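Tip: read the tokens left to right.
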């Protein structure tokens, strides 16, 4: 067995000691409402039982019927996970299970809970994980590599600390388009790891849905890791003529020769890696429970998503292995928002599109205008990003009453009937 695989197995056995047992009498799952009114809840809210109870109470009081709670942020877990370590903010209280408590409280109020899992986003660039069981340390060979470092790192042992140090250094200089360290979607073991995480949540918690986030590449200049380049070469060679294979064989000292020579095919290859992961997980979920909703947070501009993130979400809907695309239509401009939602609804269908609104970057009345626009167009629901920004004072929320203002203007029965 490969040394890295042994390390991953040993870590899994250690973490598995904390794996939960599914309750004998599970909470009843919540049926999807005619209009989904959801909140994305960032993981810091899950740090303490009191903040969870307060979050559920506020959602209930203000007319929200769905919570999308971030339980995998940076390769860590805000639940009792089998495959990954607990998040540092909850590691001291082994009895505290944020996801279980959220489900218990929310279901008691008739609110659906969707487990939000960051898919390929692995670590922050400024504060990388310190837990030795974290996959960042166990499997550095699964880390995505930027183009500018590809030649330099191709022959470097990923276990060499300089391998990760170089990627972190590059990331810090690319903050304009990269959030941190990512896993390589092209690595089969990345797909296996992510699949195992999803099934672990599904098999041990009575979630109403599971939500992909960061189900994409960070940018066009990723991933040029050894595993990705090698797998592309192997997939490409059978498509070449004998003369082409002979010509390129003489150039293989350059690890980028195939990716550089066939850029369009390399883009298709990268796109296929993300699509394969989504498809496999979707069918894994439906095999275990066909009633669980599988959603993905996607770039609202489908062209940008397709060309620059290799996230082909319209085809996922069309081919039937995604239930809902939650568009991150965060522009404060209502006309831009309206057009993005219109195009998505036309492409995916009403029941398959939730309109994601960037509440953190606009006042409540602008969010209300977008809720009304989404209803007029026929989206199946709306999601505000985020609960956290809506309950703290800010430039756009001076009295920390954002949810109340949205509820009064958009969720009263009279307001809803105008658009139904």
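Filled-in amino acids:
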């Amino acid at each position: 067995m490969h040394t890295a695989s042994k390390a991953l197995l040993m870590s899994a056995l250690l973490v598995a000691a904390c794996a939960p047992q599914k309750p004998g009498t599970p909470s009843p799952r919540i049926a999807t409402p005619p209009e989904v009114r959801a909140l994305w809840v960032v993981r810091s809210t899950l740090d303490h039982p009191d903040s969870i109870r307060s979050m559920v109470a506020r959602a209930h009081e203000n007319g929200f019927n769905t919570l999308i709670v971030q339980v995998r942020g940076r390769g860590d877990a805000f639940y009792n996970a089998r495959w990954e370590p607990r998040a540092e903010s909850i590691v001291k209280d082994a009895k505290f299970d944020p996801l279980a408590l959220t489900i218990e409280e929310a279901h008691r109020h008739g609110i659906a809970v969707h487990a939000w899992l960051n898919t390929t986003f692995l670590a922050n660039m400024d504060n990388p994980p310190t837990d030795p069981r974290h996959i960042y340390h166990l499997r550095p060979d699964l880390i995505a590599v930027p183009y500018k470092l590809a030649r330099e790192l191709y022959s470097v042992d990923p276990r060499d600390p300089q391998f990760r140090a170089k990627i972190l250094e590059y990331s810090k200089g690319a903050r304009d388009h990269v959030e941190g360290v990512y896993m390589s979607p092209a690595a089969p073991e990345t797909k296996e790891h992510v699949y195992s995480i999803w099934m672990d949540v599904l098999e041990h918690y009575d979630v109403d849905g599971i939500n992909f986030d960061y189900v994409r590449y960070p940018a066009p200049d990723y991933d040029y890791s050894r595993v990705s380049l090698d797998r592309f070469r192997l997939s490409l060679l059978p498509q070449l003529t004998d003369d082409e294979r002979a010509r390129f064989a003489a150039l293989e000292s350059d690890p980028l020769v195939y990716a550089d020579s066939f850029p369009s095919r390399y883009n298709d290859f990268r796109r296929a890696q993300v699509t394969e992961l989504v498809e496999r997980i979707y069918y894994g979920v439906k095999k275990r429970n066909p009633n669980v909703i599988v959603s993905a947070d996607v770039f609202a501009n489908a062209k940008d998503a397709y060309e620059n993130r290799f996230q082909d979400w319209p085809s996922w809907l069309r081919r039937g292995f995604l239930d809902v695309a939650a568009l991150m239509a965060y522009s404060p401009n209502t006309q831009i928002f309206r057009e993005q939602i219109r195009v998505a609804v036309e492409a995916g269908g009403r029941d398959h599109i939730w309109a994601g609104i960037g509440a953190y970057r606009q006042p409540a009345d602008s969010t209300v205008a977008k809720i009304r626009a989404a209803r007029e167009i026929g989206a199946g629901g709306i999601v505000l990003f985020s609960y956290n920004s809506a309950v703290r004072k800010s430039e756009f929320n001076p009295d920390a009453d954002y949810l109340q203002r949205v509820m009064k203007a958009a969720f009263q029965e009279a307001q809803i009937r105008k658009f139904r």
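The chain has a mean pLDDT of 93. The longest strand covers residues 66-72.
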